[in-house]
Amino acid sequence: MTVQQPPVTLALLGDTIIEYYGNAHGPNPAASSSATKSALNTLFNNYVEAGAQDKDIVGVEGTMQYFTEVEVDAEGLDALVALEIVQAPTIGEMSREGFVNGWSERNCDTVDKQKRYIKTLKRDMPGNKDLFTRVYKYTFPIAKTAGQKAVALEVALVYWDLLFSSPLSAVKWSSSNTPWLTWWSEFLTESYKKSVNKDMWNETLKFAQLTLEDEAMSFWTEESSWPSVIDDFVDWVKKEKRGDVPEEVMDEEY
């Protein structure tokens, strides 16, 4: 007697797949995620300093140890890349939540996996403006002093130098004709004594990218909604660096 098998349908296959991935015979995404987070929590514990009161925070010593193990230059742009992944609350610190969630999302639960992931980002970053922008914008909150809404000018200048001149940067703010970053730093040091707020920080990146595309700065007009410090910088460049003569002065001469 021949037993006729039921026809194989997409619905039947779907039920089979769900059963397979939902029981002990196949990979369970929830269990996999749980295992990854467990491994990351254990890894995080390796960097918590002995005697630390808060076991959910890794301090400077532990962070430097971690950087060494994943081959990150603590003074390079790759340090900001790594800190952005784990959403570090400030420079030189890592939180358990940020470390576990950041690396869990990337399925990197070992030092070797994290090292390879960061190495790939370092390779791709010079040509990846989206990645660079994400790291650039993340730098603002970690550069602030706790409780402050803005970044001290001298601190901002250090980070701008790193972000805009590093070999890893996707926006190197200089050209064969114009040392934009040098001029920006010179102008701010001489003429700007305030701290740097979030709007100025973000608009500086936008301005930098536009100046690299249009060194004559024809994109800028008096009606543009740039921060006033950028308006002043444009005027300073035209007068102090390029010797432009204001139109009203030219009219008087004629």
TrEMBL record:
Q: What is this protein called?
A: Defective in cullin neddylation protein
**What's this protein's function?**
Neddylation of cullins play an essential role in the regulation of SCF-type complexes activity.
**InterPro entries per UniProt:** DCN-prot (IPR014764), DCN1-like_PONY (IPR042460), PONY_dom (IPR005176)
User: What are the GO BP annotations of this UniProt entry?
Assistant: protein neddylation
**Organism this protein belongs to:** Pyrenophora tritici-repentis (strain Pt-1C-BFP)
Q: Where is the DCUN1 domain?
A: 35-238
Q: What Gene Ontology cellular component terms go with this record?
A: ubiquitin ligase complex
Positions the record marks as coiled coil are: none
Name a GO molecular-function annotation: cullin family protein binding
Q: Which sequence ranges are marked TM in the entry?
A: none
